[in-house]
Amino acid sequence: MKTLLHICCAPCANQPIEVLRADGFEVAGFWYNPNIHPFTEYRARRNCVRDYAQTIDLKLIEKNDYALRPFVREVAADIANRCVKCYEMRLFETARQAKELGFDSFTSSLFISPYQNHELMKETAQRAAAEFGVEFLYRDFRPYFKPGQERARELGFYMQKYCGCVFSEEERYLKKNKIIP
């Protein structure tokens, strides 16, 4: 079974790739992350994914759009609830690509993060699957988060400090500096 794995970053992707391959899936990666800001962060994550894909013989499909403006337009009306729009942008595009390119299913490395809204992502992916007529391959990769982070450090991956969007970076900064907005 061929599955398209949306990849948010190499540290989060290494374990899902291993697990899916061990389960007999033919995995290809898909890079599409219009939420990541600034461009230097976007480039560092993308380049790390590219390098890692080469070392493990992973086909990598890229929709290489640094799309800060479209992302901000999508979330500007409701910044507090921006994550659903972010999930929709990435998971709907992954489902569309999976369907167009003849994959049997799709999933995302986002499902490894204990920091993401797992149920909201799952519901969003299920809606995307229904819209595009391709199977959403649900896997809860969270038990592999710590081993994935350890493996990423062993491999010298770029390790980010926030989910990627400008608003999460702002929250990280405010929390770190104990600034109350």
Number of distinct beta strands: 5
The arrangement of helices and strands along the chain is EHEHEHHEHEHH
Cα Rg:
16 Å
Mean pLDDT: 91
Number of helices: 7
CATH arch. level architecture: 3-Layer(aba) Sandwich
Kindly give the count of domains. 1
**CATH level 1 name:** Alpha Beta
* Termini separation: 49 Å
Summarize the structure.
The chain contains seven helices and five strands; from the N terminus they run βαβαβααβαβαα. It is α/β, with parallel strands linked by helices and 181 residues long. It has a single domain (2-176), classed as HUPs (Rossmann fold).
Key words describing this protein structure:
single chain; alpha/beta; five-stranded parallel beta sheet; 7 helices; globular
Task: Describe this protein's structure.
The protein is globular and about 50 Å long. It has one domain: Rossmann fold, CATH 3.40.50. A 5-stranded parallel beta sheet has the order 3-2-1-4-5, with helices on both faces. It has helices at 10-22, 39-55, 68-75, 82-100, 118-132, 145-154, 166-176, and strands at 2-7, 26-31, 59-62, 105-108, 135-136. The protein is built from 7 helices and 5 strands. 51% of the residues lie in helices and 12% in strands. By secondary structure, the protein is α/β, with parallel strands linked by helices. Helix 1 (10-22) crosses helix 6 and helix 4 (82-100) packs parallel to helix 5.
